[in-house]
């Protein structure tokens, strides 16, 4: 049945900011949806609050609303745009929950609009634990014994029947938020309490424990004519007990018998039919008892999920694209397979290779956090690899993670300690398993400790056997080297085992003419010809790389998402590919992140799904150079990962397009960069390097406190601290025990109370285009990735902006930039001075935000400059304004989204939510309005911390913040807010004539007065202002902040944040949100 002609326009609901449990896979699925709808002539209306996404580019929708994803805002868009239908199955749990709320408010009837992709009843049947359980039973399946609970007393009663341990699963949450395994009553109080708070329906499911069972997922699609396909089976290497997003997963499933697989398949088909997902995809999870084969259905997602993105990339079957076509009326047999162009989508994909996904974690950013892996998802990204065998795909995936300790090694270790450690799932468990097997543990012993299937352990033992062979003194023959490469060993690993330099192994391979060949992901195991060049490497016989005549440009992607390097960099890579394809070049993308738009097979002309290591990238360049002309490599758009490869590529004779590695090194090296600043009469904060506490104390004394101290051997703000006195400095030096002459400590003058400025600009060697001057809302000392920022800057006058422009041009010229440069400045107010903090001659994480705020596609322009175009050319081509610099449309605020609710300490208490110089945010949102207050208020709503219009606020200011903060407290009082405060703040406010109700500190003796925590946990306040003293996590402050996080009360920890919140509340009291599409803002 062809296109449903009644659908003239569709409102697509996006997934909002990147958070743990809901990452950029929904940008990938949403972008595909928008492209499909537009190609069918349907008007596309989009709402998404995340500016770092490709889908929010104005070219992908007819009306793009970067607005908070709340039912109230969506209703206003529905009223204005009058869509025929709403598509909510491609925006994760956020979109699904929004659709449910719209239905409850009667919005679909009110605006004469229908929900497509999955109807409300199907969503309820899939998401409501009790209804789903009865459906499973009705089709002959089995669920774990369970009880639905709405209160803690329900939970305590249920556990008497179920017995400990029990699994706690809240309804309608994503990424297992609020879930966990309770082994005793204390655990239950803690986990179920959080689960009841996180569930929008205050509902949790308690289940009998099936920890240690094998876990599988099937990705299923169905059309309205009842055709069903199983796209992919996925097996978790980790047994039940670890969230599937935190587990290493393998496709296709490896350890199922055909009979077991057919049972799962039959159950999946019956479940999708009974639930009623009639036009789209869903994901169904199963547990299988390894002892007796008993199958339990765990849950389903009646929408496109994280696993859908993995299944799409693993098979080449574009689930989101096909789900969108099904939603607008097509059937599976009417949709052509893009890759073969000769088979329909009703053909189930077949794989003649193995795919492995490995998650990436960021526990180093949260040193207090419990690192045990449970049913609450904690990973921040993932890498995927494809190989001809499981060992090959696994080793490629591990090196794709780019994190120390992930790649297998064969150094000595304590075996009894490893056996003990591996009993608890953590991010390094697989490495513990591999090393224990290498050191003599038996497969049975490791199985008993971990319940990882025997087959996987045997495969790891095969890798270890090869390592033993490589270690032996014998000759490294071509056959042995080939066998090692076929098991996924890198040159680096082989060199380590042979105790030789990595170059020696590379030269030996060259001598043997031993190089990988590239195979095609074709959806059909070679049965039909593949017309889309989507490649993976293997040490096999024949290559499938097609020859070409067009000049090609290779773009290096950014690898797995992590804190500090996320979707913003993928955005720039995708834009480069779009711009260069349009300019007539063949584009070749190398990346290993299955969640991204860059790894969609039709983003670039060719896609290599490969690790971003020097060895892997050089081999791809060699293969592509043999296929046709290669102009060079773009390394400045994907963040630190490709930048780290640029020098090695240049040394290997590869042409680096755009800013040269020498220029990048110049900006990184303090001495060289300091010279550029000196030559141009530009100021930088004073700094010094210390090898001991004595030296550090002398430098700090000379520079003057406060100082910013950090180890010299870490990236991305790791280990940075602001210290205000010699005592704190001593504490820092003592903690950083690795300080040696090789690892000195850097000490910078910290510009207290300075305004931090972020600048993005383009430079072509002659002319500067100043794209945006952003002002950080938080003071200097908060990592730029965690600070809210506003464009245009609201505190700078014309002269200061002129000074910033001049300084930017001098630095861009001095460093010799060709393309993008990001510079961070600080402006002190008394006396007024401009300081240069750092310069990064590459794409920054603010590029997408500046592009959306000004309407200029910066990354596209940067890619063309790297190919030799001038800014004057780009002005003529309307890619940049005809004259002048970037001008913001309205006022835009970018706010960081922080994952405090995901992490707890071992004892179950929350981690501290104080911001500092180390980046901790996973994503961002944007608020756009005609004034700062409203733009800031929108950004807070989008970042899950909506500002209250009325009510009460708790205020506790540190001694040094009282003078700076009391006026904001007075303003809140004048806005009719009741103020609760602790003794010191209460007394200070009283002296200033500001009334507040005194509450006792949590550490004070208990009396009949409410404590600071009481007013938060009892729901008496709608906003918390708590500024800590220095960085020290004093117990009182920490208790206040963690109570606010656990009760989802907005908590602000800085004075500038407090001031901005008052501006936002003032704006909210006088008007509603102003709702305008980006296209309308750009037409102004």
From TrEMBL:
List residues of the MGS-like domain.
945-1084
Required co-factor(s) are: Mn(2+)
Family annotation (InterPro entries): ATP-grasp, ATP_grasp_subdomain_1, CarbamoylP_synth_lsu_oligo_sf, CPAse_ATP-bd, CPSase_dom, CPSase_lsu, CPSase_lsu_oligo, CPSase_preATP-grasp
Q: In which pathway does it act?
A: Amino-acid biosynthesis; L-arginine biosynthesis; carbamoyl phosphate from bicarbonate: step 1/1
Q: Kindly state which reaction or reactions the protein catalyses.
A: hydrogencarbonate + NH4(+) + 2 ATP = carbamoyl phosphate + 2 ADP + phosphate + 2 H(+)
UniProt keyword terms in alphabetical order: Amino-acid biosynthesis, Arginine biosynthesis, ATP-binding, Ligase, Magnesium, Manganese, Metal-binding, Nucleotide-binding, Pyrimidine biosynthesis, Repeat
Among its keywords, does the record have Cell inner membrane?
Answer: no
Instruction: Give an example GO cellular component term for this record.
Output: cytoplasm
Protein name listed in UniProt: Carbamoyl phosphate synthase arginine-specific large chain, chloroplastic
Q: Which organism is it from?
A: freshwater metagenome
